[in-house]
C-alpha cells in the first residue's frame, strides 16, 4: 500500500536519479526535493547557463495529472469542453518522467513542458471523444493520465537539455 512516506521516497529517488544522469552529462545538478513550485532541479553547464527540470516519478505504467494544469476546461451540462492551452509556467522547462524498477533498470523520458502539454491535451480529447464528451464514472473529474507507451518516443531524449542550454 502506498503511503505518504513511500510516495515521497519514490519522488526523491527519481529526482536523485535525474540529477545523477545530468551530472554524467557534465552538468552541475541541484535538487530541491519538492520545495520549489514548477521545478525540482536546476542544471548548469560550465558557462553558468542553466535549465530547470521538473521530475515526475512512478512505479506504475502511467503518471497522473489534473488536466487544468495544461488547458482550460469548461462544462456544458455534464460534457467537458477542452479550451485554450495554457502557457508554460516557466520558460524552457524540461520534464523528465522516471519509471522506477526494483532491479535498477529505471527508464527516463525527457521532453519539453510544451510538448507534454500538447500530449496531455490530445490524450484527454481522445478520451472524451471516445465517451461522447462525458467522463463515464465522474463527469466532473479533471483527472488525466499519460501512459508510458505515449512517452516512449522521448526515452533518453537528453538532447532537449542541451538545446535549452544553448
Topology:
Blueprint (H helix, E strand, L loop, with lengths): L3 H21 L3 E4 L9 E4 L5 E9 L3 E5 L4 E6 L2 E7 L7 E7 L7 E6 H18 L12 E5 H4 L7 H7 L1
Parallel strand pairs: 3-7
Antiparallel strand pairs: 1-2, 2-3, 4-9, 5-6, 7-8
CATH A-level architecture = 3-Layer(aba) Sandwich
H and E string? HEEEEEEEEHEHH
How many distinct helices?
4
CA-based shape: globular
Provide the number of structural domains: 1
Q: Which stretches are low in confidence, meaning pLDDT under 50 for 5 or more residues running? A: none
Read across the widest sheet, the strand sequence of neighbours is 1-2-3-7-8
Any idea of the CATH class? Alpha Beta
Instruction: Summarize the main sheet.
Output: 5 strands, mixed
Gap from first CA to last CA: 44 Å
Rg (C-alpha, Å): 17 Å
Mean pLDDT: 92
Question: Helical content, roughly?
Answer: 25-40%
Short description:
With 166 residues, the chain is an alpha+beta fold. It contains four helices and nine strands, in the order αββββββββαβαα. The strands form three sheets. The protein has a five-stranded mixed beta sheet. Strands 4-9 form a two-stranded antiparallel ribbon.
Plain-language structure description:
The protein is of the alpha+beta class and 166 residues long. It has one domain (4-165): Trna Endonuclease, Chain: A, domain 1. Helix content is 30%, strand content 32%. The protein contains four helices and nine strands. The chain has helices at residues 4-24, 113-130, 148-151, 159-165, and strands spanning 28-31, 41-44, 50-58, 62-66, 71-76, 79-85, 93-99, 107-112, 143-147. It has a five-stranded mixed β-sheet with strand order 1-2-3-7-8. Strand 2 (41-44) and strand 3 (50-58) form a beta hairpin. The chain is globular. The mean pLDDT is 92.
Amino acid at each position: 500500500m502506498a503511503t505518504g512516506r513511500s510516495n515521497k521516497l519514490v519522488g526523491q529517488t527519481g529526482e536523485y536519479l535525474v540529477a545523477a544522469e545530468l551530472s554524467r552529462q557534465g552538468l552541475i545538478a541541484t535538487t530541491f526535493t519538492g520545495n520549489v513550485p514548477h521545478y525540482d532541479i536546476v542544471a548548469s553547464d560550465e558557462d553558468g547557463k542553466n535549465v530547470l527540470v521538473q521530475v515526475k516519478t512512478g512505479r506504475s505504467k502511467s503518471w497522473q495529472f489534473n488536466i487544468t494544469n495544461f488547458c482550460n476546461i469548461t462544462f456544458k451540462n455534464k460534457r467537458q469542453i477542452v479550451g485554450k492551452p495554457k502557457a508554460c509556467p516557466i520558460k524552457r522547462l524540461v520534464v523528465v518522467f522516471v519509471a522506477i524498477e526494483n532491479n535498477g533498470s529505471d527508464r527516463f523520458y525527457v521532453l519539453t513542458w510544451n510538448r507534454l502539454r500538447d500530449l496531455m491535451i490530445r490524450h484527454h480529447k481522445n478520451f472524451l471523444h471516445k465517451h461522447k464528451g462525458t467522463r463515464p464514472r465522474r463527469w466532473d473529474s479533471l483527472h488525466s493520465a499519460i501512459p508510458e507507451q505515449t512517452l516512449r518516443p522521448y526515452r533518453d531524449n537528453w538532447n532537449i537539455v542541451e538545446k535549452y542550454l544553448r
